[in-house]
Design brief:
By secondary structure, this protein is an alpha+beta fold. It has a single domain, classed as Dodecin subunit-like. It has three helices and four strands; from the N terminus they run αβαβαββ. The chain has a four-stranded mixed beta sheet with strand order 1-3-4-2.
């Protein structure tokens, strides 16, 4: 239940925080169909918020040369963790 809420929050956050200069964007499972996967990246941190998770995933995706990413796992608590699949 928490994971679904986090993923929904991240999706909304990506829409609200998306800037015109950003080269990497978050997509959903339907948008990922037909795209070529480049692997995954993960981020973890203690005591932060979902926006930080989104920004860290986007930064890692951009560093790897991805054009988009899809969150495939998210956990929260005292420590949060997220994994995203990268796409060309």
């Amino acid at each position: 239940m928490k994971s679904a809420m986090i993923i929904a929050t991240l999706g909304l956050a990506s829409v609200l925080s998306f800037s015109a200069g950003a080269a990497v964007h978050q997509i959903n499972a339907e948008q990922a169909q037909g795209l070529q996967s480049m692997g995954t990246v993960s981020v973890s941190q203690i005591g932060s918020d979902p926006m930080d998770m989104h920004h860290q995933l986007a930064a890692k995706a951009q560093k790897e040369g991805a054009s988009s990413y899809r969150i495939i796992e998210a956990r929260t608590g005292d420590t949060w963790h997220a994994t995203a699949e990268l796409y060309k």
